[in-house]
Amino acid sequence: MTDAYNPAKDGAEMSFSKNMSYSDYLGMDGLLASATPLSNAHDEMLFIVQHQTSELWMRLALHELNSARNLMLVGKTQEAFKMLSRVARIFEQLNNAWDVLRTMTPSDYTTFREDLGKSSGFQSHQYRLIEFMLGNRNPAMMKVHEHRTELHKMLQFELSQPSLYHVALRLLQDALGMQFNTDVFRMDSPHAPQQAVIEAWTTVYNDPQSHWTLYELAEKLVDLEDYFRRWRFNHVTTVERIIGFKRGTGGTSGVTYLRRMLEVELFPELWHLRGDL
Description:
Layout: H1 22-26, H2 28-33, H3 44-73, H4 77-101, H5 106-110, H6 125-134, H7 149-159, H8 164-176, H9 195-206, H10 212-243, H11 255-261, H12 268-272
Helix pairs in contact: 3-4, 3-6, 3-8, 4-10, 6-7, 10-11
C-alpha cells in the first residue's frame, strides 16, 4: 500500500506560526467574513458573492485603466495595450458571472429581496468611476454618494481628469496635426460624437500601416467597449429574467433604465466610421 503523500518531505513549508501564510497575504478572514447574508434565504449567499466578486474585478479594472491612461499621457501608448486588453477580459469574466446568477429564479429572489432595503448596484461607486474614466460622465450620478464624503471626492476628482478617451483623442489630433473643437474634451458630460473625430479616425483606418499605433489603440478601445456592452446586455437580461419589469430596489425603473444604458456609446466615433470605410 502506497503511503499518503507528505508535502513536508518535498520541502513544503508547513508551519506558519511565525511566517505569512496564503490566508494572511490575501486577508481571507475579513474577505470571507464579509459575505454574510442578512436572511436565512439560501440564495442570498449567491447574490452577495456575485456582487462582491464583481466589485473586486472592477477594482482591478480601475487599477488597469488608471495605469493605461498614465502611460498614454507620457507617450507610452504601446505599453498601455496589455492593460486595455486585460480590462476587456475582466469584463468577459464579469459577463460569465451572470450565468451563475441566472440560476436564481424569481421565487428564490423574493425570499430575501426585502432584506436589501434601498441598496442597489446602481449605487456602486466603482462602476461609476469606470464610466467616468471611460468618458460617460454624468455629474447627476454623483448625488447618490453625497453621504460618503470620501467617495464623492473620488468621483469629483475623476471628473477633473481627462478621460481615457480624451487622452486617446489628444494622441490622435497630435499625430495627424489637427485641432479638435473644445467640445470634444468636455469634462463634465458624456462624450458626444463629432464629425471631425470620425474623419480623423477614418484617416487612421484608411492607412493603418502609416498610423499603426493609433490603429491598434483604436481596436483596443473597440474591443474593450465590445465586452463592456455585452456585460450591460447580460445585466439587462438577467434582471428581466429575475424581476421582470418591477422597479429596482434603489428606486430606478429597473429593466427600463438598464435598457436605456444599452444605447450609451463610450467611443462613438470608432463605431460610426465603420459604415464609411
